[in-house]
Amino acid sequence: MSKSVEISDEVVTSKILTIRGHKVMLDFDLADLYQVQTGRLNEQVKRNIDRFPEDFMFQLTGNEWKSLRSQFAISKGKGGRRYLPYAFTEHGVLMRSSVLNSERAIQVNIQIMRIYTRLKGMLMDHKDILLKLEKLERNVSKHDENFRTVFIYLKELLNPKTEPMRRIGFRRKGDE
Length: 176
Prior knowledge:
Order of helices and strands: HEEHHEHEHH
Radius of gyration: 33 Å
CATH architecture of the domain at 9-124: Roll
Number of helices: 6
CATH topology of the domain at 9-124: Mlu1-box Binding Protein, DNA-binding Domain
Strand order of the largest sheet: 1-2-4-3
Strand content: 5-15%
Structural class: alpha+beta
């Protein structure tokens, strides 16, 4: 019987970053969640590299790593890293479960996948709301034009153009 892993959703969610337009988790954050050394985790990935195409995993550039370290105040740690960190997309995290076959890795992966699914659901909800707002905005702009036209006609009715009216009746010579 499998044991439940006690990691809060907030902890996992805080480790999901957006890099190059992808929601990713960094190798050292995953190693921390799996409770293994980052080197061991990356070693397993390198042994099974054909399971990790570019859309599953990529290595950060020096500038990306520098930016992340300054943005999130990530320390250099003891002795620093020899290599730039790897970023794993949702599919890469899922593939990792086949590389690390410990009970904890399986449980953590299940929890991570549930959070990714929830995030996708929230994104879809936001997209629906944005689409409705755009539709409402288009309708309002059409109504604005219609109201503008109504106001123009109302102003004309309230302030009719006064052209000199022709007098009715008898006229004397010289009167116009």
